[in-house]
Write a structure and sequence with these properties.
CATH topology: Outer membrane efflux proteins (OEP)
Strand content: 5-15%
Order of helices and strands: HHHEEHHHEEHH
Shape: elongated
Strand order of the largest sheet: 1-2-3-4
Largest sheet: 4 strands, antiparallel
Number of helices: 8
Structural class: alpha+beta
CATH architecture: Up-down Bundle
CATH class: Mainly Alpha
Length: about 425
């Protein structure tokens, strides 16, 4: 029984729900991760190509199901070349020939084509698995770029506030000019960081827009969801044999096995049967009917090359299945390791390092306002806080992307 393609499910859902139940268009300025995944299914170019490949495989099944067409011929003989008008002795023959396939060739062709169709549909599912992971990672990269841009702007704003205060203290004779110049230089650096963060945000927008085939709308894209959970991963080991790339490789192995039988069937001789009706104008009333059978003689070639190729293709398909299974196992092992370690790192930075850096910066700012801390202390504390904030955002981004890779490796629809 053939499994409906992914495109078929989409069309069926549209037909059943109708326009009244159509989903609301996504707000590009406040994109949720679920919105991104929906837009991915609708617009992603790689997914569109995989759907067309599945459609082409469906056409291949139609081709494989075809039967040999009959041939009709009409022949006239006895034409007088010197006197074309004197054709009283013409003989006219109408003939029809029908090739008959033997050796179960049509059924074997259908078996190979159907197995390849199932493999193409599994490729379609695997493309969705991979593109969903890339879209999730691009979404988290954009979220991290937005957070870095926000922190850079806040840092630059605080730097300008500090510069204004130090200039007032300079006028009051409470600070040396060299201290003010140090803070001014640090303020310029904060402005530069903010400019670079804005460039990085635009790059992240474009990367996500390219996956969604929405490059013209890249400038509008912005995230709305919070960072995903950093909790422990599910302890139940996944069944990697159900990953679509493993299924596709197994289906191609099945097709290669059937292709061996198809190649062997070429050694079973096909038969062409024919029937002929001949009208004899020279002797009216003596029309003739004839039948004939033709069978090829394998005196020159017996298809042993095709059979050998089919066995080699089967062995290659077996090697490919083993490679894909090994890759799936390695993906699961590596993604599990990275997701666990990066989640732990992000938790430590978010829950321990960041609060400590904020507390230290607040203490130094208060001490500076009371004259108990130097300008260098203020600059170092603010830079340390900014560095920890950026490290935390980067760690959250790395952990979220690692968990997206883990979900893809285990073929889960939802993030852990």
């Amino acid at each position: 029984m053939r499994t409906p393609s992914f495109l078929t499910y989409i069309l069926l859902a549209v037909c059943l729900t109708g326009p009244a139940a159509a989903a609301e268009p996504a707000n590009l300025g406040r994109l949720r991760l679920a919105d991104v995944e929906q837009l991915l299914v609708e617009h992603n170019r790689t997914l569109t190509a995989s759907r067309r490949a599945a459609m082409a495989a469906e056409a291949s099944v139609t081709i494989a199901s075809g039967r040999p067409n009959p041939t009709v011929s009409l022949n006239t003989s006895g034409i007088n070349a010197k006197s074309p008008g004197d054709n009283g002795s013409l003989d006219t023959a109408l003939r029809i020939d029908q090739p008959l396939e033997r050796g179960n060739k049509r059924e074997l062709r259908l078996g190979v084509a159907d197995a390849l169709l199932q493999a193409s549909r599994s490729d379609e599912s695997d493309s969705l698995r991979q593109q969903r992971m890339l879209a999730r990672q691009a979404y988290f990269d954009l979220k991290a770029a937005e957070d870095r841009a926000r922190l850079s702007i806040e840092s630059a704003h605080l730097a300008h506030e500090l510069l204004s205060k130090t200039e007032l203290r300079l006028k009051a004779g409470d600070l040396a000019p060299s201290d003010v110049e140090r803070i001014r230089a640090d303020t310029l650096r904060a402005d530069s960081d903010a400019s670079q963060a804005e460039i990085d945000r635009q790059r992240a927008r474009l990367a996500l827009a390219q996956l969604l085939a929405m490059e013209a709308d890249a400038a509008q894209l912005a995230t709305a969801d919070s960072w995903p959970s950093l909790g422990p991963l599910p302890s139940t080991p996944p069944d990697l044999d159900k990953r679509p790339d493993v299924i596709a490789a197994r289906q191609r192995l099945a097709a290669a096995g059937k292709a061996i039988d198809l190649a062997k069937s070429q050694q079973v001789r096909d038969v062409t049967v024919g029937a002929q009706f001949e009208r004899n104008n020279q002797y009216p009333g003596s029309n003739l009917v004839g039948v004939g059978v033709s069978v090829p003689l394998f005196t020159g070639y017996d298809f042993r090359g095709e059979i050998r190729q089919a066995f080699i293709a089967r062995d290659s398909a077996q090697d490919e299945l083993e490679r894909v299974k090994a890759t799936a196992a390695a993906d699961f092992s590596q993604s599990t390791f990275e997701a666990e370690r990066l989640s732990e790192r992000a938790s430590r930075l978010r829950d321990e390092a960041l609060p400590a850096a904020r507390k230290a910066n607040t203490a130094v700012q208060f001490a500076f306002s009371q004259g108990g801390a130097s300008t260098l202390d203020v600059i170092d504390a603010r830079r340390s806080l900014y560095a920890v904030e950026i490290d935390t955002v980067n760690a959250l981004d790395d952990a979220a992307k690692a968990r997206a890779a883990w979900a893809a490796a285990t073929n889960l629809q939802e993030l852990p």
